[in-house]
Amino acid sequence: MKRVIHLLLLLFIMGGGIINAQNKTITGIMTDATDGAPIPGATVVVKGTTVGTITMFDGSYSLNVPENAEILVFSFVGMKSQEIAIVNQSVINVVMETESLGVEEVVVTAYGTKGKVGLKGAISVVEAKDMEQVPVASFDQMLQGKTTGLQISTGSGQPGSSNTTVRIRGNGSIMGGNDPLYVVDGVPIEAGAFASLNANDFETVSVLKDASSTAIYGSRAANGVILITTKRGKEGKTKVNIRHQSGVSMKTQERFDMMNTAEKLWFEEIAQKGPGWELSSLNPNYQSLSNEARAAQDAELARLRGINTNWQDQVFRMGKTHSTEANFMGGSEKTQFYVSFQNYYQEGLSPRSDINRYTGRINLDHKISDKIKVGIITSMGTSAANKIESEGGVALQNPFAAVYLANPWEEPYTTAGDINSGKYLFANPYLTDEQNAERYYEYDNVGSNSLDQMANSTNMVEEIKFVGAANLEWTITPDLSAKTQYGIDYRQTLTEREIRPEAYSARILGDDEPGREGQRSQSFGRRMEANFTNTLDYKKVIGDKHLLSAVVGTEYVNRTTFGFGFTGYGLDPKLPGSLQGMTSGTPGTVNTESNYFIPAVSGGESERALFSVFSLVNYTFNDKYTFSGSLRRDGSSAFGADNKYATLYSLGLTWDVTRESFMTDLTWVNNLKFRISYGLTGNQDGLDDYETLTTWGTTQYNNQKGTVLGRSGDPTLKWEIAKKFNVGFDYNLLANRLSGSLDVYNDITDDLFVVQTFSSWAGIPGNAKKTNAGKVRNRGIELLLNYDVIKNNDFIWSVGTNLSYNDNEVLDLGQVNEFEQGTSIIREGLPLGSHYMVKWAGVNPANGNALYYTKGGQVTENYSADDNIAEFGSSNPPFTGGFNTRVSYKGIELSAQFNFAQGYSRFNNQSFFQENPSFAQYNMSTAMLDVWQQPGDVTEIQGVHSTRQFSSKDIEDASFIRFRNLMLSYSLPKTILKRTGIVQGLKVYGQAQNLFTWTKWTGFDPEDSNNIASFEYPTPRVFSVGIDVAF
Amino acid sequence: MRLNLINIQTVFISMFTLFTSCELDLSPVDEITDDKAFVTIEDLEKGRVGVMAYYGGFAIVGVTDYASDDLRYSSSNRGQGVNVHDWTYNASTDDMGSVWDGNAHLVDAANRILEISAQFDPEDATVKKTIAECLFTRAFGHFEVLRAYAPNYSANAIGIPYMKQSVISEPARLTQGEVYQNILSDIDAAIPDLDQFVDGNYWVTQSAAYALKARVAQYMGDWDMAIEAADLAISTGGFRLAEIDEVQQIWNDEVADDVEVIFRKEILSSRLGDYYTASSNQDIYFHPSHSLMDFYEDDDIRKSEYFGKNDNGQDVVKKHDGRASGSMNVVDIKYFRVSEMVLIKAEAYINKDLLDEAQAEIELLRSKRITDPDPIDMSIKSLAMSVLQAERRRELAYEGHRFIDLRRWNLGIERVDEDVPSGRQKVLESGDYRFVFPIPQDEIFANGNMKQNEGYSN
């Protein structure tokens, strides 16, 4: 029928068959990209004319075109039209791709032949174009704000950092891990290790959320699955893409200020701590000084006043980013390839913080015969990252702590130009040593010591990552095919850490400390996960109305981890970075002392295996109703002997409402699908490899070897279970201009690991074991909406949003009703991540004491942790999402992307240090200028005499909206490019990342991977420009 | 085609079944699994050595010292042991729980090896020795807990659980009579198969078992048993008291094997002396109390061996400050010494109204500690008892006895003023409930049958 219409159409266009003019004949074959089948009845027209034809039964055509014809237009219903320049060609073969209007279902395949037996359910797909050339090294960060049900928060601006949490539909596990399963081209890969992967190679990223889509992954699927496919070659002329991007990283503005010298010295007087007080004329000691001594002391104070170091200038820098990539894609009818190579270099906001990465990929597909295909995917990446000291730690060596805690009156460099490491101590020449010791105390040069440590130490990680697979597909009959694939995810890291003997931190160590002359640690780690899958898949139309497809298979996964390392001491100052620089250790004897340089060595290995049998069946009746079901049985070496096999399943129904007769009049509804699913999935992340076994370790006593109990295993331990229920719609309305989906879900995770404690008399190490007893519920609603506001040939304006709301609640904790976890509480009836703290009640204006609420709501001056309450919300945002908009006019495109997290709070541990007179030896936040000083002062800052405690004052609303990306690009028109003869496409662009953040949070970044702000490495703002050239 | 399909089916069916079971039974490389840990007698021997690794004993020394009148709070203390020193502890105070937890684990380690021993030839010498040592260890561990967590001895008073097997359970507290009975029967069962003497006293011996029995008898007030066991403890191993010039060697771990130390644990890295002075930065947490330092005669060798001064001239506890060379505060912990046996005998004689015999024992000890000892008056029982109490305090200071002895004797604590800096507590009346440690909150929580000691709330 289609063909008839086409023919008629063609005849119409051509005005009744004025098939004209000889000059030149062009022939070719038109095929379908999905299966390579010929497309008969498609149209071929010379652009701007009525000269055209239609393809024959075998997809071939032959067309006489005028000499001046430039471009042929190929089109077919449901396929993307193509315009191809003739340029001296006489044979033009065309591969037609399905037109993606949102109506066409993207078939996401878990196992088996690609595209054949698809997953159904709540799946959102992020396309390659949304992830390409984003100037971050780790791909998980690129997914921020991209789609529904996926919440991503980054805790570090270190290039290539793995400190990012990725959550699909909330936290379902209490202590078992909440990372989704990542699968690249059928190969499961390690979560949180993406620094050596090039996301430009990714074709699509599918986020699987409900039982129907995830249950096929069994006991690894409870936290959702992220399926990645990489780019494959296509038959035809080889396409070459060269890309380059350069940019700079800059610090964003924190929302607090630190004191300058005048303010700090004033505060030290108030706090009666620090040189500002010791040297003050208000200090009672001042009266007893001689005139000379007073003058000397005044002079020192004046000297300090004259210093006003801006530590930000000393610590932060503008980092550079460069990325250069070449990729090649093409192939013949039998063999197709995709090859890419990339170098990515990015500097962080601090010196000694960068990543330099090289990645290469070869994807090959080859047809041995009509029935047998082989494929290979390989990705190899190597990266070297330099890291700062004590990243994310409340530690003075952490430059992002020192930058705020260093006193403005501290000078970073001595007059000789050396780093001013050490301590500040004033000695009054007119006083005796004893008198000086009574009056003046020493203070660490916090800023300089941090600079010293950064200059005299290294912290480097070199990583090699390989992800690869080889597969063979056999089309046994048109309906039945078999596939076998062996894949490997391999990562090795070499960590190098050296503290030079010149480092201040080494020089201050005592004679029996091994690190007193520097130390060097190196460690090697290797993780390899091999997987072997064998599948049979079957798809058949039975009669007119029945479509049956099914895949059955087995999967074997084996993971080994191995590592070793050492720390050596006594480094030779002349051999920096060398293993030869270490001094060998000598043990002590009765008469001689040890040199304490005995190296420490460590190492270990572990293994786990998973064997599974699974099946997935889809049955569609009359194109309207699709029933899908999956069943999987997982046996894991990590499961307890009493619970060796998990059986997990799902059931789902999809109803294509648009195909019902009652919908035919509703022409504005192009597509409406209703989905419902329920099923069980598991989570085995919480089980350590050998946790269910009782094992023994070795010890030594009195020169004899001994055996001691290492672990008391529990053979009943098993996977955590997730019961997932989902109802949703996919829709395309108003001529496909409005599209998206709406999902409602209710996920109950059960048998969650919680700690069960035992009597000491049971002799269990730690008196505790994990047990499967907890229960958590996540329920929520997700809306995805894209709207093409204006869509015509030259001008497109589209807007989109994704909104996710997740309600999390702990339902059961087994033996207990609650337990504390640092500054949080896990309590039945509350969401995970609930803060647990004494409630702040302000400052008593009469005496400057801090006021708190008791549990009963009474105001008190007595701080007691017994008054902790859980009324300050959770550190997990319930409401997250993103907005985007894109405007394009001819070749110019402007796009902007925002993301947000709403309704959550975090504990600002930094203010405990920056707003605490007990730490007045360090710099203070300007908030402390409002400190209570005399009766009647109304302020939120307690007097210096009143001990600063953790309270709800430090819990802040961390909701934010972030202008994540702004991009402006220009693609040169094809007509210009054509003149060059070689260049097929040229695009230049400029983009800005992390442009602005709207928040009430007063730390540096409201977004973090955990609940506490502790001087983390801030996420930078990145500006970059780039060029893509296609040949 | 037909053939192909059959082939395919065969291939896939075999793949389906290829890995099914065996591949999932993985064994760790870095740990020894239960089934492989104890196969040979040599393995059992290693298990016996492993039990020794569980011996602790630091906490009962440190914690009871904090609570006693032998220490004085230091201004460089940053909170270490302050709750204990001020007697403000409760069931959740960490310091109060470690004696309980450590010794319960020691007992369980012994029980596990006892159960494993049963798989071996009962006539084998190693098996017999292993069983004997584990029985001793079981008695020792229970008694350490009993000393700290049960009130003064009375057969019907509340005791502690007594574990005779390794099992996950919620054991209840037995009466003290039952606990003591179990302890004594374990000791008696152990003695025949224990070594008589071992070099270095680093292992369980018959002497150690008699010494434990003497101490148990002393707590029970079974004075005949105490005398007999104390004598056997000394004679079985051929031990003698250290001479004055050997006292320093005791605390430097240099004394000859048959001198003074009956049973100790070899310590290579942990630091008993850290209870008093931090080895990391030399911060003093507690000084020796003036009342104790002033309690010695000037020519008493113990005064210079137990106390010292740091670089700044501040008083420090020196008894456990380390060996002559090696790291600060790393020194063996001594569980039983000959002088304790002598003092047990003296206390027994007093209680049996054999005051002359008691005086002879105490004078013997004093002659080995003081160059020119002052005369002592033990002519009447009450005087004799206070002489005994004073000598016990002097000799056994910082070895985990003082606080419990005061309770045994129904005495209270009254610190002298100069030992009580402002903010610290001075008096703990005799009979106060806080003389008995609280059962740790974690135990109460995990063990539904556990009863808290009187005076403590949960």
UniProtKB/TrEMBL annotation, chain A:
<dbReference type="InterPro" id="IPR023997">
    <property type="entry name" value="TonB-dep_OMP_SusC/RagA_CS"/>
</dbReference>
<feature type="domain" description="TonB-dependent receptor plug">
    <location>
        <begin position="120"/>
        <end position="225"/>
    </location>
</feature>
<dbReference type="InterPro" id="IPR037066">
    <property type="entry name" value="Plug_dom_sf"/>
</dbReference>
<dbReference type="Pfam" id="PF07715">
    <property type="entry name" value="Plug"/>
</dbReference>
<keyword id="KW-0813">Transport</keyword>
<keyword id="KW-0998">Cell outer membrane</keyword>
<keyword id="KW-0472">Membrane</keyword>
<dbReference type="Pfam" id="PF13715">
    <property type="entry name" value="CarbopepD_reg_2"/>
</dbReference>
<dbReference type="InterPro" id="IPR039426">
    <property type="entry name" value="TonB-dep_rcpt-like"/>
</dbReference>
<dbReference type="InterPro" id="IPR012910">
    <property type="entry name" value="Plug_dom"/>
</dbReference>
<protein>
    <submittedName>
        <fullName>TonB-dependent receptor</fullName>
    </submittedName>
</protein>
<dbReference type="InterPro" id="IPR023996">
    <property type="entry name" value="TonB-dep_OMP_SusC/RagA"/>
</dbReference>
<dbReference type="InterPro" id="IPR036942">
    <property type="entry name" value="Beta-barrel_TonB_sf"/>
</dbReference>
<comment type="similarity">
    <text>Belongs to the TonB-dependent receptor family.</text>
</comment>
<keyword id="KW-0812">Transmembrane</keyword>
<dbReference type="InterPro" id="IPR008969">
    <property type="entry name" value="CarboxyPept-like_regulatory"/>
</dbReference>
<keyword id="KW-0675">Receptor</keyword>
<keyword id="KW-1134">Transmembrane beta strand</keyword>
<dbReference type="Pfam" id="PF00593">
    <property type="entry name" value="TonB_dep_Rec_b-barrel"/>
</dbReference>
<dbReference type="InterPro" id="IPR000531">
    <property type="entry name" value="Beta-barrel_TonB"/>
</dbReference>
<feature type="domain" description="TonB-dependent receptor-like beta-barrel">
    <location>
        <begin position="421"/>
        <end position="854"/>
    </location>
</feature>
<keyword id="KW-0798">TonB box</keyword>
TrEMBL record, chain B:
<keyword id="KW-0472">Membrane</keyword>
<dbReference type="InterPro" id="IPR033985">
    <property type="entry name" value="SusD-like_N"/>
</dbReference>
<comment type="similarity">
    <text>Belongs to the SusD family.</text>
</comment>
<dbReference type="InterPro" id="IPR012944">
    <property type="entry name" value="SusD_RagB_dom"/>
</dbReference>
<feature type="domain" description="RagB/SusD">
    <location>
        <begin position="320"/>
        <end position="456"/>
    </location>
</feature>
<keyword id="KW-0732">Signal</keyword>
<protein>
    <submittedName>
        <fullName>RagB/SusD family nutrient uptake outer membrane protein</fullName>
    </submittedName>
</protein>
<feature type="domain" description="SusD-like N-terminal">
    <location>
        <begin position="65"/>
        <end position="216"/>
    </location>
</feature>
<keyword id="KW-0998">Cell outer membrane</keyword>
<dbReference type="InterPro" id="IPR011990">
    <property type="entry name" value="TPR-like_helical_dom_sf"/>
</dbReference>
<dbReference type="Pfam" id="PF07980">
    <property type="entry name" value="SusD_RagB"/>
</dbReference>
<dbReference type="Pfam" id="PF14322">
    <property type="entry name" value="SusD-like_3"/>
</dbReference>
